[in-house]
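Sequence in, structure out. Go.
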Amino acid sequence: MSSACVTADGAAWLASAGTYPRSTLALWDERPEAPVVLPCGSVFDVVSVPAVFGRLMLDRLWGDGPGSGPVAVFRGRTLLFAAPGTAQRLPSLLRWEEYDRKGAIPPLLCHGTGDAVTVPSVRDAAPPVSPTCPAAPALSGTRWLVAPDTRQPWLPGPEILLWAAVRAARAAVRISIFPPQDQDAKVYDASRRR
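Output:
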């Protein structure tokens, strides 16, 4: 996984989502531990999932997939930063695949145009933290798992997040086409018949 330390370029990218990016950067220069509320839809969308399921999605994205964009934790939920437009498209993909009806995937809260999210401070990092990336205590209950570190981070789109959610659901609930075995059943080897 990527670093949990927000770089100057990462902070500039985050601030570019707001109406007044220079004011946001000035706030972070003065109070680097301050979380900020930023609008979604133009620079990024955010998909919010329950924390445990979010970790399963991250495991799939980093273990079997292309990785993730920035990822934060906020009050028991994992915030996956995604490409703009994802919040509008992902729910319809889930309905089309009928995963929202099966209950295997918990409700995904998609934040896009017209929404805003609380972004962790530039110092709220997940441990371990290197000496060059000092962590402040996460006062707001937010922290970075994968922090933005460039001015143009790669952001997954709706198809990739659908793929990760489906695989995470399959990992959480083992699905089998075979009925469960009856432990008390007698098994006979029919191959030895004459």
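Check: Residues 13 and 151 are 5 Å apart (CA to CA). The two ends are 59 Å apart (CA to CA).
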